[in-house]
Amino acid sequence: MSERAPTAYAAAGVDIAAGERAVELMKRHVARTHRPELVPDASGFAGLFRLDLSKYTAPVLATSTDGVGTKVMLAQALDRHDTIGIDLVAMVVDDLVVSGAEPLFLTDYIACGSVVPERIAEIVSGIAEGCCQAGCTLIGGETAEHPGAMGPDEYDLAGAGTGIVEADAILGPDRVRVGDVVIAMASSGPHSNGYSLIRRIVADAQLDLHANVPELGGPLGEVLLTPTRIYAKDCLALAADMEVHAFAHITGGGLAANLARSLPATADAVVDRASWAPPAVFGFLARHGQVSQEDMEATFNMGVGMVAIVAEDAAERALELLAERGVPAWVLGSVIPGSGKVVMTGEYRS
Fold it and tell me: Are 271 and 344 contacting, i.e. CB atoms less than 8 angstroms apart?
């Protein structure tokens, strides 16, 4: 019997069988994320989620979408794909929680030049891990094969999340008051921002991603691939326990630009650099890339991944609760009369 001829689609570079195997491999990872509200859908064309409206008085849905930028190119260069999904979830859910919303579910989209089932499953395992850390369900997703548009080993990913918050519990600039305290939560590194600059520094300085760097505590590539810290559950715990007025997720643009988004037009936040020492990776990048402090601060989080603005009498309890939850945190500054700006003072601790 002669072998079956390949289909026209397969000849064009799209392997449907590989896609089906990838789906089978990722199922066990997706199952880890299921919340009780998930409604089975035998067709698999859509994700269904039942809202328990008895838990809310005036529920408001929140939504956010994001990707991980060129950090995926680092994952590809190192052939390490099990953590980049954590970064994806972090970028989405930690935007949601800024409003006080609890992340409910997330969908993902993976585009690749060629479907390698094991690699896709690795990526999804990270997405599932991120969803578990955030307490949300990975409700669905899509894997698309784009031969010709992307190289066989290239891929990109994006995600969209939905959360829920009571209308009278939405956090933001309108709640912030003069005298509030600004609390910093430590980042795990550059998170998922500034990687175009990072890759340029690595290339221009001819740095070896596999080389051990004692000051960083491990191989350069592994340090740069450290997944983004997910703060969603920690922020929700703070908001449930005390008077939180606003959060700020410190992503692209750095601390000052993102914190300013959570300030009213009548107040400034004064931030004291001397309150913390940025992780060694930022000094390493600045030195090897000859990047000025101004440019570093405008690109990277410099060690602050999330900020909470709380009532003055809640600051001590906020630090205690975060310590109990294993999140390094400190008083970053305070809110004063102003015009919606962030004023950075002092010099970083060494």
Answer: yes
- Tokens representing 191? 């998170």
Tell me the pLDDT of the chain averaged across its residues: 93
Quick one: angle between helices 84-96 and 71-78, nearest 10? 160
Domain with CATH 3.30.1330.10 in the chain: 15-40+59-166
CA distances from 1 to 4, 7, 171 (A): 9, 18, 68
3-state class (DSSP) for residue 269 = strand
How is domain 15-40+59-166 classified at the CATH fold level?
60s Ribosomal Protein L30; Chain: A; (3.30.1330)
Distance CA 97, CA 161 (A): 11
10 Å Cβ neighbour count for 182? 27
Contact 144, 269 (CB under 8 A): no
229 close to 187: Cβ distance less than 8 angstroms: yes
What angle, rounded to 10 degrees, do the helices at 16-31 and 117-134 form? 30
Name the phi and psi angles at 132, rounded to 5: -60, -40
Domain 173-345: give its CATH code.
3.90.650.10
Give whole-number Cα distances, 18 to 116, 145, 249, 346, in Å. Answer: 7, 10, 37, 56
Residue 256 burial (CB < 10 Å; 0-12/13-18/19+)?
middle
* 176-201 pLDDT per residue, tens: 999 999 999 999 999 999 999 999 99
List, in order, residues 6 or more apart from 276 with CB less than 8 Å away: 184, 186, 303, 304, 330, 332, 348, 349
H helix runs in 205-314, sequence order: 220-224, 232-241, 254-260, 280-289, 293-299
Lowest-pLDDT range of 3-17, 96-110, 116-130, 135-149: 3-17
288 contacts 277 by C-beta, under 8 angstroms: no
Biggest alpha carbon distance in the chain? Answer: 83
pTM assigned to the model: 0.93
Q: What is the H or E stretch that residue 90 is in?
A: helix 84-96
Q: What are the residue ranges of CATH 3.90.650.10 in the chain?
A: 173-345
